[in-house]
Amino acid sequence: MTLLGVNIDHVATIREARGGIEPEPVQAAAIAEQNGADQITVHLREDRRHIQDRDLKILRETIQTKLNLEMAATVEMLKIAKTIMPDTITLVPEKREELTTEGGLQLKAEYKQYIDQIRQAGIEVSVFIEPDLKMIRFAHTLGADAVEIHTGKYANLKDKKELNLEIAKIKKAAEEIGKLGMRVVAGHGLNYHNILDLVELDLIEEYNIGHSIISRAVFTGLAEAVYTMKQLITY
Ligand code: PXP
């Protein structure tokens, strides 16, 4: 069975826009799990723009499936991760000025110390990289358990020829990851349309999807939300 990780960062983004208490990401996690999510994914950013340390603590206590923590390879994050003990850590690049995680991680030899420490703590390590064979082989050398293919480029392409080339690249990448014995994961920019061609490859074991699911939820829930408010003010 293909696994679905639901990224709930953007529930926290809406909450942080007002600095209040709603919507509650913990509630979003529970609903996602009740409706088939196999994993809840959150990115604790250095600037805490959406998910907060408090969210992570409560999510660890309440999640019934798996917790996948996306984080930068830093001493601060490693310390937090060892306290929280998520099921998986996905190492991602992080730049303060970016809107979202733009591009995969450029793996370097110094990542090995982080990967080793995370694995020694009993946590699975995934690395978020481009569908690049050299980088995939390097991830294996560094000891990664899983590779999450960055599908951002694929998601942004419009030209059919370029799109087919990118799908072929993702296919080769997925085959190589599997051949090396690592779990094949994909994510970023995936939506209800572009997911279909990747599903057809039948090579990807897990997807982490956030923005499109939260965006769809706005519209599938908007009618009820307006209706209920109208009832409250009508007497
Ligand atoms: N996977 C990783 C490693 C990510 O960093 C993100 C974005 O935070 C996602 C998946 C989800 O991307 P999206 O919100 O575009 O579905």
In words, what does this structure look like?
- By secondary structure, the chain is α/β, with parallel strands linked by helices.
- The protein has a single domain (3-233), classed as Aldolase class I (TIM Barrel, Alpha-Beta Barrel), CATH 3.20.20.70.
- It is 49% helix and 17% strand.
- The protein contains ten helices and eight strands.
- It has helices spanning 9-18, 25-34, 53-62, 75-84, 111-120, 133-142, 152-156, 160-179, 195-201, 211-233; strands at 3-7, 39-43, 67-71, 88-91, 124-129, 146-150, 183-187, 206-209.
- It has an eight-stranded parallel barrel with strand order 1-2-3-4-5-6-7-8, surrounded by six helices.
- Strand 3 (67-71), helix 4 and strand 4 (88-91) form a beta-alpha-beta unit.
- Helix 6 (133-142) packs parallel to helix 8 (160-179).
- The mean pLDDT is 97.
- Bound molecules: pyridoxine-5'-phosphate.
Brief overview:
This protein is an alpha/beta fold and 235 residues long.
How much strand content do the residues show?
Answer: 15-25%
Output the structural class.
Answer: alpha/beta
Low-confidence stretches are none
**CA(first)-CA(last) distance:** 50 Å
CATH superfamily label: Aldolase class I
Small-molecule binders: pyridoxine-5'-phosphate
User: What would you report as the Rg, rounded to the nearest angstrom?
Assistant: 18 Å
The multimeric state of the shown protein is: single chain
**Major β-sheet annotation:** 8 strands, parallel, barrel
Query: Rough shape?
Result: globular
Q: CATH class, anyone?
A: Alpha Beta
